[in-house]
Amino acid sequence: MAGVLVIEDDDRIRLALLLALEDEGYVVRGAATAEEGLRAQRQDPADQVLVDLMLPGLDGFECIRQLRRDDDVPIVVVSARDDTHDIVAALEAGADDYVVKPVAIKELSARLRALRRRARTAAAPVPVYAFGGLEISPEEGEVRRDGRPVPVTRTEFRLLCELAEHAGRVLSRQQLLSRVWGYDTGDERLVDVHVGRLRQKIEADPANPRHLVTLRGLGYKMQR
């Protein structure tokens, strides 16, 4: 059974999440502070971690950064803060997903299962995708721009590979949520945020992208 660590300072919410996830078949542990959660994860790593942003002492953003420095554990933010700025900041800190409170436990459980499937899925042998000076190598798990490595997160890499595999075709946000995140439905801002971050890394002029372009009202596509 998968193990989940819940880092949440509100005793009532933490207990509700622990009980609900236990009913879903997870082995669960709770922590009331970032410091307690970090110690627990280092001593006995969980398979996945849920993190609230508004934690006492060390906040959720720094907790995510420290978790990510330690290992590649899937991290889901569960927060009442639904501003796009907070979502961007959490994803940039290293979170894999963002769920807004109040939480529908069936949806949260589905997202946790999707993250585990993604973590287990190895890239199939495929050629290197080339877009001018941009190269994407699924087998090596690397992105290079003009021969230099480009640091990307696991989710950014999967998104880039999906777009590169279907170069020239428009993929809607919902298609990308399904193929990259494994969600039947979800917050389309997750796609927009990751696309924006990728443009900052792979485009010479992110404000006027050459390769990762938007088709207004339709979605995104990769082009040479």
TrEMBL record:
Lineage, top ranks: Bacteria, Bacillati, Actinomycetota, Actinomycetes, Micromonosporales
Any GO MF annotation of the entry: transcription cis-regulatory region binding
Species in which this protein is naturally found: Micromonospora halophytica
One GO biological process term: regulation of DNA-templated transcription
Residue span, OmpR/PhoB-type domain: 126-224
PANTHER family noted in UniProt: REGULATOR OF RPOS, TWO-COMPONENT RESPONSE REGULATOR ORR33
Gene3D superfamilies according to UniProt: 3.40.50.2300, 6.10.250.690, Winged helix-like DNA-binding domain superfamily/Winged helix DNA-binding domain
Protein name according to UniProt: DNA-binding response regulator, OmpR family, contains REC and winged-helix (WHTH) domain
Highest taxon of the lineage: Bacteria
